[in-house]
């Protein structure tokens, strides 16, 4: 906890699923609405960082508003807007393996004659046929490019652990002999883009998440502080993780905010 006394917190990054609400649940985690209100009332810069690729940013914003949270769509940072900028900058045309619900976020993107593959959390679309199509697209390219919208291993929904996009990305990496570029947590490029939007130095920012690797580890690798909450995908063995050591553990977001506000004084 010494790190908390040495840094003045000016900005906060919050994961969404597992921190604000449990995936698949229709109610916020106890105290999370109040926690966000307290952060904003304290004048801290707050951004919401998510690897959510099963709904559009607009759909996610609407869901959070229904749950009682107050934030603008521009304060929410999912991977799809970021990858669309990458496609435009690098003149890339993707083969998409994504959840059909987020297809509108790719409106206007040229998908003819693909020269890259993008994997999102396609859930039930992750079947042999679709994975094989993505593999075939990669091996047909002279210089294959594979993007993964996040690299999560699993997430929790309605009390069950479910495979995230990471394991399917690893399968394609192995089969096509290509290294995926991650757009989303724990990518340093992703975190840096959020910090630039906040206009706050990494030394003065703390990330709160339920994923010890993608959230906490990813943030710490960029110079931020990281708090692990005991909600969402948290498991007791996270407290003895061999490589990632959070700056603090908190039972939930509300308890994490108590630590943050003390560090922001």
Concise account of the structure shown:
It contains 9 helices and 12 strands.
Shape: globular
Order of helices and strands: HEHEHEHEEHEEEHEHEHEEH
Number of strands: 12
Uncertain runs: none
Helix content: 25-40%
Placed side by side, the strands forming the largest sheet appear as 3-2-1-10-11-12
Structural class assignment: alpha/beta
Please provide a written account of the structure.
This protein is of the alpha/beta class and 265 residues long. The protein contains nine helices and twelve strands. It has helices spanning 2-6, 32-41, 57-66, 79-90, 128-139, 165-176, 188-198, 212-221, 253-263; strands at residues 11-14, 45-49, 76-77, 94-97, 116-119, 146-148, 154-157, 160-163, 181-182, 205-209, 225-229, 248-250. The chain is globular, with a radius of gyration of 18 Å.
Features:
265 residues; 4-stranded parallel β-sheet
SSE topology:
Elements: H1 2-6, E1 11-14, H2 32-41, E2 45-49, H3 57-66, E3 76-77, H4 79-90, E4 94-97, E5 116-119, H5 128-139, E6 146-148, E7 154-157, E8 160-163, H6 165-176, E9 181-182, H7 188-198, E10 205-209, H8 212-221, E11 225-229, E12 248-250, H9 253-263
Parallel strand pairs: 1-2, 1-10, 2-3, 4-5, 5-6, 6-9, 10-11, 11-12
Antiparallel strand pairs: 7-8
């Amino acid at each position: 906890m010494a790190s908390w006394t040495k840094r003045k917190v000016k900005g906060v990054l919050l994961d969404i699923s597992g921190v604000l609400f449990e995936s698949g649940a229709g109610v916020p985690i106890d105290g999370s609405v109040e926690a966000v209100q307290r952060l904003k009332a304290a004048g801290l810069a707050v951004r919401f960082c998510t690897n959510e690729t099963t709904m559009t940013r607009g759909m996610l914003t609407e869901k959070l508003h229904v749950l009682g949270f107050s934030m603008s769509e521009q304060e929410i940072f999912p991977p799809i807007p970021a990858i669309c900028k990458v496609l435009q900058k690098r003149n890339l045309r993707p083969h998409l393996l994504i959840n059909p619900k987020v297809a509108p976020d790719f409106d206007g993107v040229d998908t003819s004659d693909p020269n890259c593959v993008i994997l999102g959390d396609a859930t039930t679309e992750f079947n042999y046929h679709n994975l094989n199509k993505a593999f075939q697209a990669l091996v047909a390219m002279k210089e294959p490019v594979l993007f993964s919208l996040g690299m999560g291993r699993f997430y929790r929904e309605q009390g069950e652990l479910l495979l995230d996009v990471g394991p399917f990305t690893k399968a394609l990496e192995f089969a096509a002999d290509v290294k995926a570029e991650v757009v989303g947590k724990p990518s340093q490029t992703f975190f840096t883009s959020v910090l630039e939007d906040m206009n706050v130095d990494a030394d003065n920012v703390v990330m709160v998440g339920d994923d010890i690797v993608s959230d906490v580890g990813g943030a710490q690798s960029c110079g931020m502080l990281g708090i692990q909450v005991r909600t969402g995908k948290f498991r007791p063995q996270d407290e003895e993780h061999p490589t990632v050591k959070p700056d603090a553990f908190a039972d939930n977001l509300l308890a994490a905010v108590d630590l943050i506000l003390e560090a922001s004084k």
